[in-house]
């Protein structure tokens, strides 16, 4: 159990954590765990982009789905870029035509939505995938924050 006490003495790698939020997996690469970082990057970005492909860019919506967006924001700036694209392109009417949607409250004016807005279960699956990618990146960031810096022996062992 000497390894556990050595890990408690290890300093926190704040730069690796910030870099891991900016680009998923880069924190792991920064501290010398290249293979782990590449696998994390492929998994997180693949899951997030898969969510966007399944549910459309409107799967990431800070205004309509704020709780989901908190989880999605863990994936980094890519979530904010997708939200910007949703607000700036779909909800503004620059892409697709804005049409009236049935109101949830009959006393209110019907909301305008883009004809490119994804409906049905596909949108919900896209939201879930993007949120899972964000939460997965939070775990990878926490791992990079506390994982010991790789030595040459560790790097040679991981190449085998």
Any overview of this molecule?
It is a single chain. The chain is mainly α and 160 residues long. The protein has one domain (2-159). The protein contains 8 helices and 2 strands; from the N terminus they run ααααααββαα. The chain has a two-stranded antiparallel ribbon with strand order 1-2. Helix 2 runs antiparallel to helix 7 (121-146), helix 4 packs antiparallel against helix 7 (121-146) and helix 5 (66-72) crosses helix 7 (121-146). The longest helix is centred in the C-terminal third of the chain and has 26 residues, at 121-146. The protein is elongated and about 65 Å long. The two termini are 26 Å apart.
What's a concise summary of this model?
The chain has 8 helices and 2 strands. The protein has helices at residues 2-9, 14-22, 26-30, 34-55, 66-72, 77-90, 121-146, 152-159, and strands at 98-100, 112-114.
């Amino acid at each position: 159990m000497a390894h556990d006490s050595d890990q408690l003495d290890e300093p926190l790698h704040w730069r690796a954590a910030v870099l891991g939020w900016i680009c998923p997996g880069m924190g792991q690469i920064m501290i010398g765990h290249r293979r782990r970082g590449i696998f994390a990057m492929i998994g997180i970005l693949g899951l997030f982009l898969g969510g966007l492909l399944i549910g459309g860019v409107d799967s990431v919506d800070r205004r309509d789905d704020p709780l989901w967006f908190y989880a999605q924001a863990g994936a980094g700036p890519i979530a904010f870029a997708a939200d910007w694209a949703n607000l700036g392109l779909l909800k503004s009417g620059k892409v697709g035509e804005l049409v009236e949607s049935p109101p949830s409250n009959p006393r209110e004016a019907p909301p305008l939505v883009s004809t490119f807005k994804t409906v049905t279960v596909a949108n919900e699956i896209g939201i879930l995938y993007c949120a899972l990618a964000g939460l997965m990146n939070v775990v990878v960031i926490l791992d990079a924050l506390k994982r010991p810096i790789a030595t040459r022996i560790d790097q040679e062992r991981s190449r085998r």
